[in-house]
Automatic annotation (TrEMBL):
Its EC number is 1.2.1.32, 1.2.1.85. InterPro entries: Ald_DH/histidinol_DH (IPR016161), Ald_DH_C (IPR016163), Ald_DH_CS_CYS (IPR016160), Ald_DH_CS_GLU (IPR029510), Ald_DH_N (IPR016162), Aldehyde_DH_dom (IPR015590). One of its GO terms (molecular function) is aminomuconate-semialdehyde dehydrogenase activity. The active site is at E249. Belongs to the aldehyde dehydrogenase family. The keyword Transmembrane does not apply. Gene3D superfamilies: Aldehyde Dehydrogenase, Chain A, domain 1, Aldehyde Dehydrogenase, Chain A, domain 2. Keywords: NAD, Oxidoreductase. The lineage of its organism: Bacteria, Pseudomonadati, Bacteroidota, Flavobacteriia, Flavobacteriales. Residues 16-476 form the Aldehyde dehydrogenase domain. This is Aminomuconate-semialdehyde/2-hydroxymuconate-6-semialdehyde dehydrogenase.
Length: 480
């Protein structure tokens, strides 16, 4: 059975304690590889390697750094199909999605920051009348920790690593233990691209062991984390007293506001996607759908009809719309929310059942589920389910829609469907979320700030925001 290895100091190695975890294939429930159950000793070795590599990497020219990042992007592009197959097998997502979204985006992340680092500049402030000039140096932080989740494995891993490296830092990174495979392959790609040893170290294992060891390590100056709000809270509690820089991209419970004056066909098609893409396991999925009363019954009928057409199947089948959920534990968690729906005065309109697929009977398949709720205060509307489950509910007025949208602890993204520009602007101003999409969804320009408000996180990724996060500004004031 394949054994994934840690990538430390430019070499692949086994965990020091010779301790291993099972890695499951969600499409059939079988263990198909072993991953290192690393601990603080492996992290220590990674930190030592990163420390040794830092002086040369942080002083490398922008051109050299940019060239290596481009080579990593080339390596991902060259191995696109292999990486997409690995991602799909590891995560359960349709291969078609990994081929068209996950892996191309991971490639773009490296490409984007290979270019962005050559355009990143610091400010100068001339204090006129005082014969003084100030300028700001932006120094890399040193060693930084990047910790990512399982839903978009290589996509989110690279979204952190690329800017951290571009800014001149050395990185100790940990992918999710649930989906480690493409991070392992990224190590090979970095080796082939000529990334100097120790600049990027990828350590595999459990959050509580090796993740915690990264966060606690005194030499790690910043943590860029994407994952659940509860984990983010725990990380903040550990890192804040050590005065580490923190970027936390956390959970969401995103509202999708649909007005009667919207482009109905476009809205319907996109809403199916924003509800169920990647089995609803995207932090940006619109999991709470609110529909203007006038078109509520029509929407309900049409939406349920469209959802029923989605094909649940094995991830490698090109016709599959809904693949497997990522793990047995996650499937059980999502199913529990569905089973509790009747006790919350909510009605399952379609889906809700586990699905058995021939020759893949032990896979983690679940029907896409639409639940009609009576109140925005029920658990189904207040807690992040993070699976193929959406709720729908009518609203009467724009103000009521806004109230529903904001009446939740999260504030990651939101979607508004309307052809009224005034309304779109009013709502965009008032919605408590880091991202507002109007008449579109998951439409991303990598230059824009990405992140959440409220319990969805702290800080922003994307564009120069990430380069700013991964550097320490130092002002120099010269009198002449
Ligand atoms: P998770 O919080 O369980 O794990 C995320 C990562 O943190 C994993 O690598 C895990 O091993 C690690 N970890 C766990 N405990 C740790 C600790 N004590 N110290 C250090 N690291 C630790 O999240 P998950 O279940 O993998 O991912 C799903 C969650 O991620 C959802 O809540 C989803 O909304 C969120 N998410 C957010 C965004 C965003 O951009 N805001 C994007 C994707 C996913």
């Amino acid at each position: 059975m394949q054994r994934i290895k840690n990538y430390i100091n430019g070499k692949f190695q086994e965990p020091k304690a010779d301790n291993w975890l099972d890695n499951y294939n969600p499409s059939n429930g079988e263990v198909y590889s072993k991953i290192p159950n690393s601990d603080e000793k492996d992290i220590e070795e990674a930190v030592i390697a990163a420390k040794k590599a830092f002086p040369a990497w942080s002083n490398s020219t922008l051109e050299d750094r940019s060239q290596v990042l481009h080579k990593i992007a080339d390596g991902i592009e060259k191995r696109l199909v292999e990486l997409a197959e690995a991602e799909s097998k590891d995560n359960g997502k349709p291969l078609s999605l990994a081929l068209t979204v996950d892996i191309p985006r991971a490639m773009s992340n490296f490409r984007f920051y290979a270019n962005a680092l050559t355009q990143f500049s610091s400010e100068a402030h001339e204090s006129v009348g005082k014969n003084t000039i100030n300028f700001t140096l932006r120094k890399p932080l040193g060693i930084v920790g990047c910790i990512s989740p399982w839903n978009l494995p290589l996509y989110l891993f690279s979204w952190k690593i690329a800017p951290a490296l571009a800014a001149g830092n050395c990185v100790v990174a940990k992918p999710s233990e649930v989906t480690p495979m493409t991070a392992f392959l990224l190590g090979e790609i970095c080796q082939e691209a000529g990334l100097p040893e120790g600049v990027l170290n990828i350590v595999h294992g459990l959050g509580a062991n090796c993740g915690q060891a990264i966060v606690e390590h005194p030499q790690v100056k910043a943590i860029s984390f994407t994952g659940g709000t509860k984990t983010g809270e725990h990380i903040a509690r550990t890192a804040a007293p050590m005065f580490k820089k923190l970027s936390l991209e956390l959970g969401g419970k995103n509202p999708n506001l649909i007005f009667a004056d919207c482009n109905y066909e476009k809205m319907l098609k996109t809403t199916v996607k924003s509800s169920f893409a990647n089995q609803g396991q995207i932090c940006l999925c619109g999991s709470r759908i609110f529909v203007e009363e006038k078109i509520y019954e029509k929407f309900k009928e049409d939406f349920v009809a469209e959802v029923k057409k989605l094909k649940i199947g094995i991830p490698s089948d090109a016709k599959t719309d809904i693949g497997a959920l990522v793990s047995k534990e996650h499937l059980e968690k999502v199913k529990k929310y569905i089973d509790e729906a009747p006790s919350q005065d909510a009605k399952i309109l379609c889906g809700g059942n586990l699905v058995e697929i021939k020759n893949h009977e032990k896979g983690y398949y679940l029907e896409p589920t639409v639940i009609e709720v009576k109140s925005n205060h029920c658990k189904l509307n207040q807690e992040e389910i993070f699976g193929p489950v959406v709720t729908i509910m009518p609203f009467k007025t724009e103000n009521q829609a806004l109230e529903f949208a904001n009446d939740v602890r999260y504030g990651l993204s939101s979607t508004i469907w309307t052809s009224n520009i005034d309304r779109a602007m009013r709502l965009s101003n008032s919605i408590e979320a880091g991202i507002v999409w109007v008449n579109t969804w998951l439409n991303r320009d990598l230059r824009t700030p990405f992140g959440g408000a409220k319990d969805s996180g702290v800080g922003r990724e994307g564009g120069f925001e990430a380069l700013k996060f991964f550097t320490e500004p130092k002002n120099v004031c010269i009198s002449y």
